[in-house]
């Protein structure tokens, strides 16, 4: 059985769901998990103005109420001329996957989420992403230099790999994040979209096996 998680590190609902997703993986260690980068606002050129900040803060409040996730609102409000382009951070997750295919990609994904939502780091900056990614891989037991991560992240190969994830997202018909799919007995089905409770997802998955 494979669980396919389609998300974006700079999607607030994905951030809220991340603890639930981690719980699912922890409680079902035999589950094969595929993480696909959705590209929520990949390639966006829009500068985040005050209206855009307030729009996101409204969403953040809803996510916080639903999930208890921690948000650094001050960091968002302090941003100047920030372009909300999620391609760089999605590519960083893909870069980690390319460098160490056996790494726990969900942990890497969550490290980038925390960097943006809690630490207030600029997750559109390549060198910042390389520092986060290399540190997350080192914490997972892999020896990775920041420069090595940045070089691969900057490559055409990584750009194309991220684009392949975005294309798969479109092929799957995903219109919102996070979205979960399950592959079982040669069939693929959508489990749900948006914030979900781990217990509900587990119950559904276990019901397929029974």
UniProtKB/TrEMBL annotation:
Q: Which molecular function term from Gene Ontology is one that the record holds?
A: oxidoreductase activity
Task: Describe the location of the DSBA-like thioredoxin domain by residue ranges.
Answer: 3-203
Question: SUPFAM superfamilies under this entry?
Answer: Thioredoxin-like
Alphabetized CDD domains for the sequence: DsbA_FrnE_like
Superkingdom is Bacteria
Q: Which Pfam families match?
A: DSBA
What the entry lists under InterPro entries is as follows: DSBA-like_thioredoxin_dom (IPR001853), Thioredoxin-like_sf (IPR036249)
Q: Give the protein name, as stated in the record.
A: DsbA family protein
The organism is Paraburkholderia elongata
What does the organism's lineage look like at the top?
Answer: Bacteria, Pseudomonadati, Pseudomonadota, Betaproteobacteria, Burkholderiales
